[in-house]
């Protein structure tokens, strides 16, 4: 497969296609056993016990009650068919369900990964400006005293953040950029990463992060920071997500992983 190394207007779809085709051989022959959708997160379990998680961007869902017409008919679907939902572009919930399905079969055991979060993976230097696209409060708190300046963008917050309209001006000034993987779900990833022209490090982080390094090689992304979920804790994960748990409330049933991409980023991506 030839990887597309640039991001035109439909760049997010191209990136999701790369993730899907990386996951496809691992999805073949598997079926969906269970799905739960909460207010913050959703999870998919496959018939081999593998569990994948992604964020629910509930404020960006279309109005009405038809976000998932297939509700009640998902269990028993072929895993590759459910994963393909992230390619149809119908709404962010379907994209998240498809992404979680791919996350369930990510090659965690084959990755040269470390058990740590995004803040530990950053190469922070004196005087750095850190840009954060998506307000991750715990990460911001850990980084506040390590960098010279922090610039945060988030659609869901009005305090302590800059509006999206300032990204074109401010993101090129950042030495480090942390992008939440929800940007793959709401379609903003390609625009955001195109503005990281001055960034030494770009970290894609969050429960939705697809841990498929080959899909991101040659882009400006230098680190993938995601999560692996332990199948033996499926009941606890699903129960808590169904009760509107956040990532912080379920991470004890999995672990945070970071993977540094092997190839250096190219300046034109």
Which strand-content bin applies to the residues?
15-25%
End-to-end separation: 19 Å
Please identify, by name, the CATH architecture of the largest domain: 3-Layer(aba) Sandwich
Helix content range: 25-40%
What's the pLDDT, averaged over the residues?
A: 89
CATH class of the largest domain: Alpha Beta
| Series of secondary-structure elements, N-terminal to C-terminal | HEEEHHEHEHEHEHHEEHHE
Main-sheet strand order equals: 4-10-9-8-7-5-6
Q: What is the total tally of β strands?
A: 10
Shape, per Cα inertia axes: globular
- SSE class: alpha/beta
What does the largest sheet look like? 7 strands, mixed
Tally of contiguous helical segments: 10
Rg estimate, integer Å: 18 Å
Low-confidence stretches: 1-9, 265-269
Number of domains: 2
The name CATH uses for the topology of the largest domain is Rossmann fold
How would you describe this structure in keywords?
7-stranded mixed beta sheet, globular, Rossmann fold, about 270 residues, alpha/beta, 2 domains, Enolase-like, domain 1, 3-stranded antiparallel beta sheet, single chain
Describe this structure in words.
By secondary structure, the protein is α/β, with parallel strands linked by helices. The protein folds into 2 domains: 11-107, Enolase-like, domain 1; 110-229 and 255-260, Rossmann fold. Helix content is 28%, strand content 20%. The protein contains 10 helices and 10 strands. The chain has a 7-stranded mixed beta sheet with strand order 4-10-9-8-7-5-6. Strands 1-2-3 form a 3-stranded antiparallel beta sheet. The longest helix is centred in the N-terminal third of the chain and has 17 residues, at 11-27. The protein is globular and about 50 Å long. It starts with 10 loop residues before the first helix and ends in a 9-residue tail after the last strand.
């Amino acid at each position: 497969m030839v990887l597309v190394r640039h991001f035109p207007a439909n760049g997010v779809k191209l990136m999701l296609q790369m993730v899907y085709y990386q996951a496809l051989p691992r999805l073949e022959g598997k079926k969906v056993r269970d799905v739960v959708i909460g207010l913050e997160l959703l999870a998919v379990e496959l018939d081999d016990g593998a569990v994948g998680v992604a964020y629910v961007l509930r404020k960006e869902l279309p109005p009405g009650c038809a976000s998932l017409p297939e509700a009640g008919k998902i269990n028993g679907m072929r895993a590759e068919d459910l994963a393909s939902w992230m390619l149809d572009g119908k709404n962010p919930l379907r994209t998240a369900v498809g992404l979680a399905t791919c996350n369930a079969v990510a090659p965690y055991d084959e990755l040269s990964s470390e058990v740590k979060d995004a803040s530990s993976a950053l190469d922070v230097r004196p005087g750095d400006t850190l840009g954060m696209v998506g307000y991750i409060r715990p990460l911001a708190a850990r980084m506040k005293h390590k960098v010279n300046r922090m610039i945060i963008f988030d659609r869901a917050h009005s305090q302590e953040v800059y509006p999206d309209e300032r990204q074109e001006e401010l993101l090129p000034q950042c030495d480090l950029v942390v992008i939440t993987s929800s940007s793959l779900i709401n379609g903003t990833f390609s625009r955001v990463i195109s503005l990281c022209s001055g960034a030494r490090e770009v970290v894609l982080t969050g429960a939705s992060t697809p841990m498929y390094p080959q899909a991101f090689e040659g882009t400006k992304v230098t680190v993938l920071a995601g999560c692996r979920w332990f199948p033996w804790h499926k009941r606890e994960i699903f129960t808590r997500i169904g009760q509107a748990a956040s990532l912080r409330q379920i991470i004890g049933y999995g672990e945070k992983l970071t993977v540094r991409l092997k190839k250096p980023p190219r300046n034109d991506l």
